[in-house]
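Form 7-S
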Amino acid sequence: MTTFEPTEQARAAAVRAAVLADIARRRTLFASAWNGRALHVIAELLDIVALSFYEEQPTRPDGIPDSARLALADAQTVAADTPGAGFPAGFGQYITHALDRRPLTTSASLGLTACGLAADDAQLAAALDILHGHLASAAAEEVAQALLEAVFALHDKRAHLAQLARG
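Output:
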């Protein structure tokens, strides 16, 4: 009988999922009841993602275990349904990037038309692009984890900006 041993990339993806779960949990302290509940659900799903990378052998060539794939899809759906939580709908790319190294993308402009809000959104998007470049070239996974904190701080600011524009 052989024992499953996760690859270095799978362990990195698991740690990234755990980092994002911690970010979600910390945000619940300052979130509204609705957003706080969504953040708890996202954190719980990301815990499943992290454990799956450690415990399950992938069945597809992309290296993502089936349980992780399903939980990550559910977490991204929750994020899309509650934009005030500050997690972008496609945030799973930050986890799977450890496996596939696909270029990280910044979500499209928020479409803000208020005088200073469009410029603020453009600055935040540009800062995200810069951090994405640093994340893609991070030599050590510890650096990538620190960069994730900064990336999600910017995503949170973009979410607040969009909420401000909606009134």
